[in-house]
Design goal:
- Helices cover about 0% and strands about 60% of the residues.
- The protein has no helices and seven strands.
- The two termini are about 25 Å apart.
Length: about 90
């Protein structure tokens, strides 16, 4: 895997990892970290019948109880609660 490139903007960090032909990933990978949340965005070579699909992975790294609200394509928010005492 090539060396990642790190950018810091205010409270956020953006890491970019170049694609590698041997990984069969058709794009660079971008990870954004801010407010205790990590978002990974990249293209996937295959997903079911689709090829070269956009892939987004969200990881809430906050250990305190609380609420994470997620909305995709104006489809309404979905609530994800962090139970008390659970760490990710």
């Amino acid at each position: 895997m090539p060396d990642p490139e790190l950018h810091r903007i205010r409270d956020a960090s953006i890491t970019v990892v170049d694609t590698s032909p041997k990984d069969n990933i058709p794009s660079d990978a971008y990870e954004i970290q801010v407010f205790g949340v990590s978002i990974l965005i990249r293209r996937r070579a295959q997903w079911g019948p689709e090829t070269d699909a956009t892939y987004v992975h969200l990881d809430d790294q906050t250990k305190e109880p609380g609420l994470l609200l997620v909305e995709v394509n104006n489809g309404g928010k979905h609530e994800y609660r962090r139970p008390h005492g659970v760490s990710s």
